[in-house]
Design brief:
The protein has 558 residues and is of the alpha+beta class. Helix content is 59%, strand content 9%. A six-stranded antiparallel sheet has the order 9-8-7-12-11-10, with helices on both faces. It has a two-stranded antiparallel sheet with strand order 1-6. The chain has a two-stranded antiparallel ribbon with strand order 2-3. It is elongated.
């Protein structure tokens, strides 16, 4: 798929999920209002609160959808979130018309706390799923993203703050399509993860689901959501059956994933175990509560629903862990720094929101309002700094253990290099260390000989053995004496990291670390570590080649 089209599709779907979900984070402060009723797709009123009951509305009454204004129809559905104070005239089949005014729904502490957790979890889920398919666009990552998208479109506040056409596009069209496609995409994920090409019956089953079941479910699901808004009643029993079919269609994917795990070899099982465990823990409760809620929207409390939604984030986190730990797709997730700061940003918003909500009313009554706010801000700042360090340490120890060990070995060798008393041995051992520890396509060292730089032994056959002192990359090293990734078109080192070996600002050689095998860039920590080694290697090499080895009584300290 063309890169621009791929990015556009992912961004559109992810942005829709973020717009749909993120607005709900204000629920504790600005609770959504309701008319006091919920209705199914046929217009039959399912639940009635005390306010609506006092105005003569009863469960089982039927709304004539075609007689209500188009702008009012979305607000009379299962989730009716509207601006407080808005009024609506509800025409009934009984002949009466009831005027209802939207009133704020009271919220409990549990609902407020779980709401923030659910929103932050769904936002994090969206970012991880989008990042996976953007960084490594493969059938398995696309399948994971598409089936996840159907779970991520879940919000109420968007009905109030966004234009009606945008709400219809996101909450009806996109949601109906993605929800129906979700179980089919999950089956594809179960077949293909991490990078398996299905054959025989599995391939046939996948095609049947994509080209027969998916279009039928999309059409029915879209009709059940769009027709009531168009003023046409849709049978509630058929709507419930469609939702049940969508939930039941996840079963083949779950069975397929379990069967693959049981039959897999030891190496593949290590990759699958986290995915199987996380999906079972995260999605089985969600599918169960979704089926129950569709059968009777009044059974599941809002706080339980929020917890179930927040629980979903276990799946993408476990999948990301599997990808990073076992190098399933040979990527580093724009490496640990991006992941850390993404998690920290999400956590920061949540902590600040919870703190503001918890202490807001108390601070308003306190004479030390300003002092208390400043103190809390400082405490949060210090706690976040500590938390950042702990998270970074944990990720380096658990997920990026191999990379951390490699960098530590390079740093250790850079301090030992001064003890080597022979220049060719110094270069050879530096090369050996780098080739063992750096995951690059090649590593080479060039040393100055007259007006050229010659590759030292043992040579890397993939690159040129000789470079002129006037080569464009060499000129940059000579002038600026700082590491850089070569971007000169057509240059033999294009995409490689060049590290100068200098003594008193004079270039005596340089190290070339080729493009990384996982097709990512060198992160700052890697560049700093490699440059420190190059500097000490340059100082040691120059010292040994200038003074006779037999005359050495001490070693240089760069």
């Amino acid at each position: 798929m063309h890169a621009f089209l791929r990015v556009s599709i992912v961004v559109l779907i992810a942005l829709g999920a973020l717009l749909y979900n993120a607005a709900d984070i204000v629920d504790p402060w600005y609770p959504w209002a309701t008319y006091g009723i919920t209705a199914d797709s046929s217009g039959t009123i399912a639940t009635v609160d005390d306010y609506a009951s006092a105005r003569g509305v009863r469960a089982g009454d039927v709304i004539i959808l075609s007689k209500s204004p188009l702008a009012d129809r979305p607000e009379l559905g299962i989730v009716a979130a509207v601006h407080s104070g808005r009024t609506v005239d509800v025409p009934m089949r009984s002949g009466k018309t009831v005027r209802l005014t939207a009133h704020t729904r009271s919220r409990s502490l549990a609902e407020n706390v779980t709401d923030i957790l659910a929103v932050l979890s769904l936002v994090l889920y969206t970012l991880i799923a989008a990042a996976l398919v953007l960084l490594r666009p493969m059938p398995a990552t696309w399948a994971f993203f598409l089936f996840s998208a159907g779970l991520l479109y879940n919000g109420d506040q968007s009905m109030q703050y966004f234009p009606a056409w945008l709400v219809m596009l996101i909450a009806v069209v996109m949601y109906a399509i993605l929800q129906a496609v979700g179980p089919v995409a999950f089956f594809s994920f179960a077949l293909r993860f991490p990078n398996v090409a299905p054959m025989g019956r599995s391939k046939s089953a996948e095609r049947i689901l994509w080209f027969a079941a998916a279009p039928m479910l999309v059409g029915l699901n879209l009709a059940s959501m769009a027709l009531p808004i168009a003023g046409v009643a849709f049978p509630a029993a058929l709507t419930a059956s469609i939702q049940f079919a969508i939930a039941a269609l996840y079963v083949p994917g779950i069975v397929q994933l379990i069967v693959r795990y049981v039959r897999s070899a030891r190496d593949e099982r290590a990759r699958l175990q986290w995915a199987v465990a996380a999906f079972a823990v995260a999605f089985v409760p969600y599918l169960f509560f979704t089926a129950v809620q569709n059968a009777n929207a009044n059974i599941i409390s809002l706080s339980v629903s929020n917890v179930v939604q927040a629980w979903l984030v276990i799946a993408p986190v476990a999948l990301a862990y599997t990808v990073l730990k076992h190098r399933v797709y040979d990527i580093r997730f724009v490496v640990s720094r991006a992941l850390i700061f993404g998690i920290m940003t999400t956590a920061t918003v949540g902590i600040l929101a919870l703190a503001d909500w918890a202490f807001g009313k108390w601070l308003e009554q306190s004479r030390f309002h300003l002092v208390a706010e400043v103190t809390i801000a400082l405490l949060l700042g210090f706690s976040l700094t500590t938390l950042h360090k702990r998270i970074e340490h944990l990720l380096n120890r658990v997920i990026f253990a191999a990379q951390t060990a490699a960098l530590s070995a390079i740093r250790r060798f850079s301090h030992e290099i001064d003890l080597i008393a022979e220049p060719h041995q110094l270069v050879a051992q530096t090369l050996q260390t780098l080739r063992q520890r750096v995951e690059a396509q090649f590593v080479a060292i060039y040393t100055e000989e007259g007006n050229a730089f010659v590759q030292s032994e043992p040579v890397a056959e993939a690159v040129t053995p000789l470079l002129s002192a006037n080569d464009l990359a060499v000129l940059r090293l000579r002038r600026w004496t700082e590491p850089f990734e070569c971007d000169v078109p057509g240059h033999p080192f294009r995409g490689a990291l060049l590290l100068p070996m200098t003594v008193r600002a004079q270039l005596v050689g340089f190290i070339v670390c080729g493009p990384k095998t996982d097709h990512t860039h060198y992160i700052p920590e890697e560049v700093d570590t490699l440059q420190a080694l190059a500097h000490r290697a340059g100082a040691g090499y120059a010292w040994l080649t200038i003074r006779p080895v037999t005359a050495l009584t001490s070693y240089p300290q760069p």
